[in-house]
Amino acid sequence: MSRLFFADMNAFFASCEQQERPELRGKPMIVVPYANMETTCAIAASYEAKALGIKTGTRVKAARKVCPQLEVVEARPQVYLDYHTALLDVLNAHFVSIQVLSVDEMACRISCLHTTTEAETRLARQVKADIYHRLGEGLHCSVGIGPNVFLAKVAGDRQKPCGLTVWSNEDLPDALFDLQLLDLPGIANRMLLRLEAHGIRTVRQLYEADSLALKRAWGRGRSALVLDAPGQPGGRLRAIYRAAV
Ligand SMILES: [Mg+2]
After folding, report:
1. Is 105 marked active-site?
2. Out of 74, 105, 170, 196, which one is annotated catalytic?
């Protein structure tokens, strides 16, 4: 039975800049693709900016209106790639199998040496400490552990920006039932409307829906994937995630 460790670097580009440039730490700041273009959008926002409601996709002009002293920083892709490579180095020291899902998200298979929640928690704390040691304290890393990539990711989303959530197989599926449908990766506003139109309003209803109901709700072309992964806690939800991405 496999167990997955999911690392997500939060506000990644903004945190890299705050790490590289200490004068930006503790300040509301955004990263933009091009400097001196007021019509462009933020591609990352620091946690100080997020606290003001500024986020990825917010236009520079609108962000400045909210926060006149906002720092606007031009993106430096090579710098972010260097941090990505450093993160990969750290993970490679702890895991044999790593799936890179994006520049700041990675899923790693946990070795069968770590069989208990305590052992997994110890491992995760060590990996997180190594990440901060290597990349810097300015970074934000949330970690989730669960029985598949989807559930490990959802677990990691529970405590942002720097938390650690371990879902043992005994915790599931109950741990999911406190969540909103929009908390699940792959479900955004349009999908939410579709699900609601099919009578699925809670994660419990989604989990308990039979495959025909899911097929109907999800629409044609994606339905086969919904049938995937039987006999695993949250397996059906993993399939939904696959169908949605
Ligand atoms: Mg991220």
Report:
1. yes
2. 105
